[in-house]
UniProtKB/TrEMBL annotation:
Keywords: Dioxygenase, Iron, Metal-binding, Oxidoreductase, Vitamin C
Family of this protein: Belongs to the iron/ascorbate-dependent oxidoreductase family.
Superkingdom in the source lineage: Eukaryota
Cofactor(s) demanded: L-ascorbate
Protein name: Fe2OG dioxygenase domain-containing protein
Enzymatic reactions: salicylate + NADH + O2 + H(+) = 2,3-dihydroxybenzoate + NAD(+) + H2O
Domain (Fe2OG dioxygenase): residue spans on this chain: 195-295
GO BP, sorted A to Z: defense response to oomycetes
A GO molecular function held by the record: metal ion binding
PANTHER family (UniProt xref): OXOGLUTARATE/IRON-DEPENDENT DIOXYGENASE
């Protein structure tokens, strides 16, 4: 009975004492939680207020260094009000507390659906399940998708639309800054994305009776351009730095920014899309809300011409984002980077 539940949250709510076998990773592929480094400065914290004054060039340089050496950074004074952040976290929690029958109205294993509730990562292809349920939403332009979103909780659509719009504003600010940090025109990356795409996920990680045996999400890099992550106050994100996993503990009212594969391509390998993972714990549920900003499917992505010269030949072929994402999805969260398949062999 317990194992027929389509969603992890409902299996977990039955009080299972042991992780079902489908979630148990091989010994060589477990989190090894005792070996994770704890650091107060796991990734840089950048104050975006400085973008709008005499410290503009200093902040641009900080962003450039973070993209080049860390692949991740955190931002404060980002312009998104605290009440908007609190509201979206509560809205996500409220959705996952709805009765099973209500949540399952959004359930689908079809990745082509632009609004869908599912579990793990790709239940059709993966060998091991991940300790996660997620609600995935396409959200730009908002008016194209809002009617698909859940209508329960009653304020869901209004709250998510407000949040999506605010985060898009932050992304556009960051894309200008990142373009500038590469020595490109401030609108270069914006124009490279064609019509733009924006998705978000509300990830729910229930308490796990044996967190050392499984992952919320195993190590991966993000296939999109840039990800803006909001965490609740329960740790879970870990980033690979110098061959060691480092825990990135949440800081209230900040966002974590991570560089995705498309940014690594546009920067001609100057900026790095870094491996990261989500672990779970036995005591507390965890909620995270990543916004995935990406090129539209028809956008042709390749290294910026101004970043190619005799000393820096083009590392990647040109490809459409649709081509890239299809390969990423079908491969699943493989350890080998999907980017390697798009390299120019002589690079």
């Amino acid at each position: 009975m317990a194992f027929s539940k389509p969603l992890l949250a409902d299996l977990s709510s039955l009080g299972v004492k042991n992780v079902p076998s489908s979630y148990i990773r091989p010994i060589s592929d477990r989190p090894n939680l005792s070996d994770v480094e704890m650091s107060d400065a796991a990734i840089p914290l950048i104050d975006l207020q400085g973008l709008y004054g005499p410290n503009h060039s200093l902040v641009i340089a900080q962003i450039g260094r973070a993209c080049q050496f860390d692949g991740f950074f955190q931002v404060k004074n980002h312009g998104i009000p605290e009440d908007v952040i609190d509201t979206i976290l509560h809205t996500g929690t409220d959705f996952f507390k709805l009765p099973e029958s209500e949540r399952l109205k959004s359930y689908s294993d079809d990745p082509a659906k632009t609004t869908r509730l599912s579990t793990s990562f790709n239940v059709k292809t993966e060998k091991f399940s991940n300790w996660r349920d997620f609600l995935r939403l396409h959200c730009y332009p908002v008016e194209d998708y809002i009617q698909e979103w859940p209508s329960n909780p009653p304020s869901f659509r209004k709250n998510v639309a407000e949040y999506c719009t605010r985060v898009r504003g932050l992304v556009l600010t960051l894309l200008e800054a990142i373009s500038e940090s590469l020595g490109l025109k401030s609108d270069y990356i914006d124009k490279a994305l064609s019509k733009h795409g924006q998705h978000m996920a509300i990830n729910y990680y229930p308490p796990c009776p044996q967190p050392e045996l499984t992952y919320g999400l195993p190590e991966h890099s993000d296939p999109n351009l840039i990800t803006i992550l909001l965490q609740d106050q329960v740790p879970g994100l870990q980033v690979l730095r110098n061959g060691k996993w480092v825990a990135v503990d949440p800081i209230p009212n900040t966002f974590i920014v991570n560089i995705g594969d498309q940014m690594q391509v546009i920067s001609n390998n100057r900026y790095k899309s870094v491996l990261h993972r989500a672990v779970v714990n036995s005591d507390k549920e965890r909620l995270s809300i990543p916004t995935f900003y990406c090129p539209s499917s028809d956008a042709v992505i390749g290294p910026a011409k101004d970043l190619i010269d005799n000393d820096h030949p083009a590392v990647y072929k040109h490809f459409t984002y649709a081509e890239y994402y299809e390969i990423f999805w079908n491969r699943g969260l493989e350890k080998e980077c999907c980017l390697d398949l798009f390299k120019i062999s002589s690079a």
